[in-house]
Design a protein that fits this description.
By secondary structure, this protein is of the alpha/beta class. The chain is built from 10 helices and 25 strands. The chain folds into 3 domains: about 25-330, no CATH class; about 350-425, Immunoglobulin-like (Sandwich), CATH 2.60.40.10; about 435-485, no CATH class. A hairpin with a 2-residue loop joins strand 24 (about 475-480) and strand 25 (about 485).
Amino acid sequence: MAFNFIRAAAAGAAMALCGTGGALAAVNLPALKIDKTQTTVSGLSSGGFMAVQLHVAYSATFAKGAGVVAGGPFYCAEGSVTNATGRCMASPAGIPTSTLVSTTNTWASQGTIDPVANLQNSKVYLFSGTLDSVVKTGAMDALRTYYNSFVPTANVVYKKDIAAEHAMVTDDYGNGCSTKGAPYISDCNFDLAGAMLQHLYGTLNARNNATLPTGNYIEFNQSEFITNHGMATTGWAYVPQACQAGGTATCKLHVVLHGCKQNVNDVQQQYVRNTGYNRWADSNNIVMLYPQTSLAATNSCWDWWGYDSANYSKKSGPQMAAVKAMVDRISSGTTPPDPVALPAPTGVSTSGATASSMAVGWAAVGGAASYNVYRNANKVNALPVTATSYTDTGLAASTTYSWTVRAADANGAEGATSAAASGTTLAGSGGTATCTTASNYAHTLAGRAYAAGGYTYALGSNQNMGLWNVFVTKTLKQTSTNYYVIGTCP
């Protein structure tokens, strides 16, 4: 990343691509079936600052949210390289956060960026390594304060407890966690891409740890969208097979922005292939778009202080508009019509109670391929239920629960929710359940729960307990060894 090189002049632009297959291998960016409400962006370092710019300036497009690693507030540099290398990186106590918030509101009122109201439903994931010597943690603290003016606090996860240097963090690839150096990807035993995507999108399928198909990587022609302005002639995308042209799936889109000294000229395809995003994309139908800067960009950085344009952080900024145009193109495929929603199952009832289980039954729904069962609004079946009954297990004795059922079609699309049916489990034959009230953080330390993607889940039952922090308090009931549910003891 080497932000200390920002003051240096840009390197010569005329350099051949290295390890990318060259411009001749590039194709035009395809138009795919993308759910435009599911578009997000993330970035590291200069890419982190750029991700904030895109999220705020094009908040109607990136309304779902953003992930930022080692970045800072919107318009932090205010057009000055001195501010960029000083207060926005090395001495963040000088960041004028309230002024930047005011500027954001003014520009939104003038229409040079999208309305800030679009940010109200966004989710934001922030990460700062405790050893980051390039963009100090204080800059990310200022970013959190900035976002507090536009995004609900509950929608923001801020992780800053890993001893990582300036890098994109993974759980199995890169330098040692405390190393600062190319390719600025570090193995810190933490899946940052996965944690980020799960916060932005909610619960995802497990990542695909197998070797990913080579044909899913696409080198595309960036010159369709921009020429010069520090942008390479080609960019990259990872397109899961189900999302490719002609596929039946309607997919999500996530834009990934590399940092300085990290484009394909600098580190070949390591940032495109080895940062952990694609494994989650492959099993969750998420298209990954990797725009690329060129060697003509100062240290291959994205423009977040004005080296290319005075409008660098507005919608009219050349790099900003180019990335937006790429998003528009890849999201322009024909989307199939919404399926006809299945009706709610009727006749939902409970029976056969034991101290730890309950049978739930319902009437068949025409056109349904399967059903999903929800206990207290949490889905309980791991696999689709093809019968019209389901036995829910792992319940607490002498406890009342409520169940609902939803029918699903052959594509897994769910219909309406049934009326609820309640039931009470029988008294246990031995002992009394143990209840513990504590913060979600304390529950995880004690082994009663675990944290994933910024949220806390009860051990055994996997019930979502809310955000993983010291402020959210829950009562957990232990019903058996290593099995806890949210509730209270009689």
